[in-house]
Target: GerMN domain-containing protein
Amino acid sequence: MNRKMNRIIKRIMVVVTLLLLPLTAACSQNESAQKQMPALDPPPFSIESAMLDGSYVAQASANQEMLTVYLLDYNGYVAPMTLNITRSNSSNRELAEQALSWMTVDPKRADQLPEGFRGLIPAGTKVNTVVEDVKSGTITIDFAAPFPGMIAANERKLLEALVWTMTELPGVNEVNITVAGEKLKMLPLSKLPVYEVLTRSIGINVELVKGVEPARSMPVTLYFTAQSAQGEGYLVPVTRLVERTSNRAHTTLEQLIQGPSQKGMLHASLPSDITIEKLSQLADTVEVSLRDDALLPNVDMSSNMLEALVLTMTEATGAPLVRVVMNGNESFTDTDAKTYDQPVTRPVYINQLMQ
Model:
């Protein structure tokens, strides 16, 4: 029994360690040589996704601006939450400091967050400095010694939350973590290595497809839906390690259709019987052509489904624009009255909290 448990622990350590390595060169975007992906049991698509319609808001009020932070939800996932904060024409450094404040456990702010959400930075943690290098697009966060103490399982989640929060800021692509001015090279309890420069290539909410060897895998980040304790819907990014293929975009879309592996905690963003008719990329635009025979004519498509699709495809390809064609229709409207007759951009704000 102990030997079996040791093998499981070692396998998990390999997975998360691999995701701390740069993975940007995992595969090309070549459309040829596609490989069948291992099947997962997708949960049935339900109407729950409709509850998220209208959860994205494009603009803040005149005296407010938006700030996206990554928090721990009640299912244990790291999830984005966009807050309305007082407008102050803040610099990235100031916004980063505000974000760190929201990510720190604070009873005074607990009632301003959805029930079940909390920060991953322990209460009382001191941040010495936050420094932005505009030229390199890097933010360096220097914590006071010692590094914040927490259970080993949350160390990796804190790292993900820090990197994904900081890279939401305009022009920021990389994050450095230091403690008392010294590079953080290893997480204290889990002993996972921390590389000098961290990017979103470390993944978030990492999971491994059954039967896939970590050393032969590649990461794809998918956006699924979840529900808060109050029944409100929100999106959760999940980085899934899948069999390496030559076509990351197609594999990513296949995995999005297959749905989440954790049934009950996350829900599918797309119907499981939807099919891919065409997927191509030209310059800065990804074209996704899908067929859903269950979609009734003259019925608006779920805005949540389309937001999850656009987020997933822009994450997979790096392209800023996505053109969606559904059942051959190149011009349609979603349930938020947003038109899709032209390529759409990636949503700037995810899961806006109505404060």
